[in-house]
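check these tokens.
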Amino acid sequence: MRFFRAILLVAALAAAGMRTAAADEVTFEVKAPMMVAAGEAFRVEFSVSADPDKDSFTAPSFEGFDLLAGPSVSQSRSFQIVNGQSKASYNVSYFYVLAGSAAGNFTIGPATVTVGGKRYSTRPLPVEVVDEKGSGGTQSGQSGNSVRESEAERTADGRIGKDDLMLRLVLSRNTVYKGEPVRASLKLYQRVPIVGSNGGKYPSFNGFWAQQLNSDERQSRRETYDGKIYETTVLAEYLLYPQQSGELTIDPAEINVVAQVVVQNSNRRHDPFFGSMPDVYNVERKLQTGRTTVNVKPLPAGAPPSFTGAVGRFTMEATAPAAELKANSAATYTVRISGTGNLAFVQAPALTLPSSFEQYTVKTTESIRTSHEGATGYRQFEYPFIARAEGSYEIAPVEFTFFDPAAGRYETLHAKAATVEVSPDASGQDSTVRIVSGLSKEDVRMLGRDVRIKLGKADLRDISQPFLFSGAYFTAAGAIVLLFAILYLVIRKRMRDNRNTALVRGRRANKAAVQRFRAAARHMKEGDSRAFYEEMLRAMWGYMGDKLNIPVADLTKENVREELHRRGVDAAVSQRFADIVTRCEEAQYSPSGPAAAEEIYARGVEFVSKIESVVKK
């Protein structure tokens, strides 16, 4: 009886969850690349976040495209109960494979679907079809039945054209004034898949003050360069502030990447169901940027004396002290410089105070936000002082000059002059000083109240034994020698460990894999299956290469299986790696639901955890 009650309760909660999901707003979206090559096959996905009415989906006509396959339907459903609150979700996706037959700008029209009697439509989606130039050696004849493995590798190497992989340093502008920022983006251009990298050398910016921008989310996007479509990724971005005029050259950057090439092997036995399975080869390439030149113009002559090197567009706000002060009391004059430009190089403007004002060190605070457009924010300068003698004084106006590169001229900002009335000291004592011949009260410091002498019996004691060569001296010296010996041994061990490349790669393997698994989980949550499987492949291949110290160019399933066997890993565990990689490679070319992605993700994490517990070095 209790069992049936439990079933009825779960059914009621599920029904309530479904009603809740139905009450939520329904979304109907379309996803497709913005730019494709003529003749290139690409996938279009229509996704609705509810259970549509039967046979209510209507696809657009796809005018201007060739329909290669579709529709393929994928459904996913989830139900959760958290703290007594039920939540259900349902999603249906319709996939089509299209190809652009001719170059031009085309539009995928709206698709329609009905949910609960209400009609929904997707937005029109523009797609640009680009007619690419020759690929420069990307095609190659297939090997015959008697071709050897080395010949197949040469065939794979020949599949990558000279311009299929490029590394470029893209500048926001090539001609600037001295001190004017330039944004430099190190970008990777690829027309073939990249599965890893073997380090490289980032550019050195001689003659510039460089500040690296935060680029945590390095998402790829498609671009057209020299008539060809590339997947581009920004590897690093910098703001460069030229510190000298003339023609400055940025040294080339280098990076070693490993590309993946698929070669059809006709020598294999033809499978009646899957057909002839292709071979996958890893090809290593060394990429290098060209020498980039920036023309830095000198700042114009005739700069005002108040110019200290600020370049950009700024405003100034000055806050004078109170109009009335007591003698010997402290006050502050504040200047804030705000705007966009080389804020880090803005110096405190000169402030001239009366001679009877005792001025102290300027205090600087700042709030600078760096973006792709430059540094924006403010620098604030506080000038603390003490008014020593009473009277009426005038503080001269502050001047700040900057160079505006947009206008090509110097701009000077002025603050208003300030008047300060200093009254006698609050203690009631005479704050004036006896007049010395030839001096005024502004020129004399009140040393009578600033210097205090304590009278009475001095508390003095005799030092019978000096510290030098005493017991405490030798104890301290021995402790210092022992500390240096310990530091020497620790540093020597760390240097020895760092020279052991295999040990370093093994230590970082798990950390790198965890980061890639997190990225894969994010793509899975966003529903981007293509990016998810690419990230899973990077995680699996990268982890095995680092953990087993296998060069990236030699990473194959067979090499991984042999190395795991040599380290005492069970054959069944080794087979899991091959199964996960094979499923990821197959899923890149065929649609699969979220359930399959979650299973592959869980198996990948479980496999890495297993290897970490078995392979200790």
